[in-house]
């Protein structure tokens, strides 16, 4: 019997990281491509550091706690995602 890889159960955030990198890169490519690359790289690094080891929706809950109105985005069944 062949063992099943454990990656099947893990959530992959590679798509999120790619979007965080590509959006500033495309938005700033007309202004200055080098600045766009630098901003995209820094945004991706900051996003990775903020989400590694945290549950899904952690950043949305943190923004809500800081006063950003996100009434339709939060799941009311979850009380707290603060680790």
Shape: flat
Distance between the termini: 38 Å
Alpha-carbon Rg, integer: 17 Å
Unreliable runs, pLDDT <50, ≥5 residues? none
Mean pLDDT over all positions: 80
| Secondary-structure-derived class | mainly alpha
Topology pattern, helix = H, strand = E: HHH
Strand content: under 5%
Helix content: 40-55%
Find the count of extended strands (DSSP E, 2+ residues): 0
- Assembly classification: single chain
Q: In this structure, how is the largest beta sheet organized? A: none
**Count of DSSP H/I helices:** 3
Describe the structure.
The chain is mainly alpha-helical and 83 residues long. It has helices at residues 14-27, 33-51, 58-65. The longest helix has 19 residues, at 33-51. It starts with 13 loop residues before the first helix and ends in an 18-residue tail after the last helix.
């Amino acid at each position: 019997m062949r063992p099943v890889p454990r990656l099947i159960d893990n959530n992959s955030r590679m798509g999120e990281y790619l979007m965080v990198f590509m959006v500033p890169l495309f938005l700033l490519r007309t202004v200055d491509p080098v600045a766009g690359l630098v901003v995209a790289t820094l945004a991706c690094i900051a996003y990775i550091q903020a989400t590694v080891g945290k549950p899904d929706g952690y950043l949305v809950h943190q923004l809500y706690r800081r006063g950003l109105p996100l009434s339709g985005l939060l799941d009311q069944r979850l009380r707290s995602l603060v680790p």
